[in-house]
Model the fold of this input.
Amino acid sequence: MPALDRSYVSDCAIEPGGSVAFTCSTDSGEWPWLALPAQHPLVIQTQNFWCSVGATQAARTRDDSKWSALTWTDWVLGDRDAGMAVRGVFERTGEGDKLDFCTRLFDAQDRLITRIRGKGVVFRTRNFESWRGKSKADVRSSAPDHSTFTYAPREALGLPEAEPPLLAPLEEVGGTLRSAALVTRENGLMPGHPYFSGSGDHVNAPHLAEIGRQAAYLVSEGEARTIAHTITGAEMDMHRYIELGTRIDIAIERPSASSVELTVSQLERSCAKIAMEWG
Done:
């Protein structure tokens, strides 16, 4: 993807073995999502993007002339009392040119906040802009009208007034618990949403992480809500781009008191799997 005009990481140092140590910005004016708790899935997946971009640019292992995409990620929390990230370590874990990596983030007291892993793909030969333009046009031409889409109340999703909802209320269809999401430019990008950033090309990993968190909050009536619903671990497998402004269907599988799995589709095409644990 084209080089970005700002960086969340600084003071990058290449360590023996090729890992990259870096300092994290703590400027919530520049990075508004830092106002959220360090353990929040939206924060973790936003950091996943910016840390990997900054570290690979510093290590000169990133080709800014090619577009890339995150296809899989998971994360686990470290110390749940840890505060804002001030430093991190990024390392490539795949062989050859595989985009497999791991990032660890630490707070000012050197407590581990989270360990994030990811896998990606580089579009080496495809004309990304042309391909995505056609895909978005195809979806727009076949998408139904969503002017009557009904979102769940903020309090049912654990949201303050400043954050717009993404999910519809739960319903049971054929014995399966289901919901839906609608992420638009109005509720999925700044300034309509105070914390989401991104290219605006598609629904990205922070959006999916927040969809998973909101779904977990809907499902976990009772105990999880009393502990402010800290997601302790999650996994996301993303195998198709999800378009903005088009309904996202969510099948909720194996819900329990401390975990949930989601199958995410759009226009009857499977797009992602999300699993979240809390407690």
About this structure: The mean pLDDT is 88. The helical segments are 41-58, 128-142, 154-157, 185-188, 205-219, 223-226. The chain has two domains: 9-123, 132-278.
